[in-house]
User: Fold this.
Amino acid sequence: MRKSGAPSLLISLFVLCGVLLSACGGSTPSTNTNGGGSTTAPKSVTLVTDIGGLNDQSFNQSANVGYMKAQGELKFRRQVIESKSQNDYVSNLTRAAQTSDMVIGVGFLMATAMDQVAKANPTKSFALIDSCATDAKGNCDSLKNVAPLFFKEQQAGCLAGVVAGQMEKLGKAKSSKLLGNNTIAAIGGLAIPPVDHYIAGYQYCAKKVDPAVTVKVNYSQSFDNTAKCQDIANNQISTAKADVIFQVAGGCGVGALQAAKAKGVYSIGVDSDQSHVNDSVIASAIKRVDQAVYLTVKDFEAGKFSATPAPFDLTNDGVGLAGLSATVPAEVKPVVDKYIADIKSGAITVPDAVQK
Assistant:
């Protein structure tokens, strides 16, 4: 019995050694910090708003929703910088680039600032909603580190125009608040491409549905002065007898929705579902800024950054119509659905230039 003790002891030692080696030198479970099964920490991403701010109930707020969704899933460090004036764009984008791996700029107005900062920081990645990075002459620079996120807003504007035009066509018997002048209106913030695309689609499809309708268009020259849009809407309603006010002016446009409520007419929101603002809002022409931001950040974290992303439109749910109110006659929705189908199939091509 004593002869077998040494081999047994050796075997026990080998087993113990194997356990220890396995524990110390074997593979350890990976910690999935960024959704990709990798131990690599997520890259940092900063969102820089335009002058409308995070509480515009529209464009910037929607961008932040997408950003927060991505941040919640991927666990990168959160940093949001709000621009108070256009003079802040270069400094805010520069600060963001210095402290993060990717910078998302919200809005067409920072296109030139984005161009300047992206060129100065070629190792950092950028995305710009509604525009390419542009030089001082307004020409697009095809920079390898900037992803322009474009939308076909004219398609969403078209659907808003279908709602307004069909209500005018059906008349007061179906929509009791109509003032009887067969007129609708739109208020833009500034005459920049994303705003004009919405208005162009609104004009085109409202007249396509009801050729006799008049479409009044005004600009507030602001995206944040609520009083300006309220004053313009009041004039459109009182002077032109506009029945439907389509706001395309961000936070300023909330004033237009308030004017519609006060004057007892209808209104249409923009960028996100604005039916929560008040019950004058019968629909909202939306573009999924939240989805664009979310997908762009997710692709970046997965190493799939692209400087040539596909535009967001009806075919990929990048734009659309939301919040169709019970106030809208039942006969309107089938017409909206027909236009959606025709746009997707290519039977209707919606123009993006405002008719003067």
About this structure: The chain has ten helices and 13 strands. The two ends are 107 Å apart (CA to CA). Residues 1-38 have pLDDT under 50 and may be disordered. The longest strand covers residues 242-248.
